[in-house]
Fold this sequence. Notes:
The chain is of the alpha+beta class. Helices cover 39% and strands 22% of the residues. A hairpin with a 2-residue loop joins strand 4 and strand 5. It is globular and about 60 Å long.
Amino acid sequence: CSPDSSSSTCGVAGAWAMMLAKSVTVVSGRDLDATLFADRICAAAARWPAYVGWYVRRREQAGRPVTWYEEPKLQQGAYATVVGVSFRRESGPVYSGGGTWTAAALGDACGFHVRGARLAAAFPLDSAEQFNSAPDLAGTRDPDRDLIQLRTVTRHGAWLPGDVFYLATDAAAQWFLAEDEANQQPWRQIDEAFDAPGAWLDELRAQRRIRNDDVTIVRCLLEAA
């Protein structure tokens, strides 16, 4: 969804997801923990009313004012899952040119650490069967900092040059884990589909190997200094 979409349901959801991503991204280079993660989510929520005001004015200026049936959606706010990973380069022979990573997640957006031909870590879920229709969500309305902190899952580990991290929204994450459980090396499939992701996703959906839902996948290749 585009934040400028004329549909309030689509527009605000996309804007909130983008706002969360930007809020978490500013902690790059710092260790991620549940407290910091909750702080960043609440900081994003504090900026939400200003966005809604801008959105309403933008619609009015474009001659597409918010309709009566869209108003309840705006009042309900927006919700999203969120996952973040922070990398730190470390010195010393034990790290072999690499460093450490920390991760935090709320809900069922997932991260995957791939080293060579194996999945080294999956978080916050590590099985395709763990996905359900009621994940924890980060919302725009009066977020409870303590509850967010309690529900945030954190992980940490070490990375080496050549390691790859994949961040994926729920449908893609569930597919990724199911493929790994079937020894199908999903990371190779993603890499091979890099130049034509739309056609690849259409094929997966046609084969009913992935849920027909929005899909976002971020790939991060770590290299030596």
